What we know:
Layout (H helix, E strand, L loop, with lengths): L2 H15 L15 H30 L3 E11 L5 E12 L3 E8 L3 E6 L2 E6 L4 E6 H7 L10 H4 L2 E7 L2 E6 L6 E8 L5 H4 L5 E8 L4 E10 L16 E4 L2
Parallel strand pairs: 6-12
Antiparallel strand pairs: 1-2, 1-11, 2-3, 3-4, 4-5, 5-6, 7-8, 8-9, 9-10, 10-11
Amino acid sequence: MSKVNLVKRSVVIATLFNTVLSTSSFAENSVTVDNVVAQNTVMSTTQINESNSKTDLMSKLAKIDFFSAKFSQKIFDESGNELQQGSGQLSVSKPNLVNWETKLPDESLIVSDGSNLWFYDPFVEQVSVYTLESAIANTPILLITNNDPKLWQDYNVSQLADNRYLIQASSDNSRVKSLELTFENNDSAEEKNTSEKLIAFNILDATGQLSIISLSEHDNETNTDLFKFTVPEGVYLDDQR
């Protein structure tokens, strides 16, 4: 593989694993009575809106028990230049089960089996494994597999539209700015009571790099074998647990 392709490959891998969310600090304001009252009013309204948005989003995610879909991915730098395109298959099941198989431009596999997160890179013949606890902390896309309020209390949620939500971590030490989830529009009352369909998600990191993932050809038939991983014979195991 050429040096250029190796660089592109490292970009894709970094995007998948460096998805810790962050929030921006508030600008300082001069301290006056009017400012304090106004700030408290804004903060109260913001907290209410964030609470409602988080409740709405968790309600949508609660309707998703399993899905499998093809994905296409584009990665852009902070200037909007396209760095990489990719495609593959993403499967998700609750609780905490993920199978992310990249087929193009290079093969790789990420599997969360409910206890561990496995990353297999056939090109270098290496498997890296991490505890799920550390994986969730560093990979917020795993939030879609978990409705635990204790986990969600570390994240802020804003509703951008009826079907779009922005997730940001409450920690200031995050390396990724945001995770945006987009669902298929359900207009009728009957459709609103059915399972939700996630159709896209975007990841923006602290360097300004943006990864845009679109989902298509959804399949809701569960396959538990997708979330099991066995280290292939002759492949090096890098155990980070």
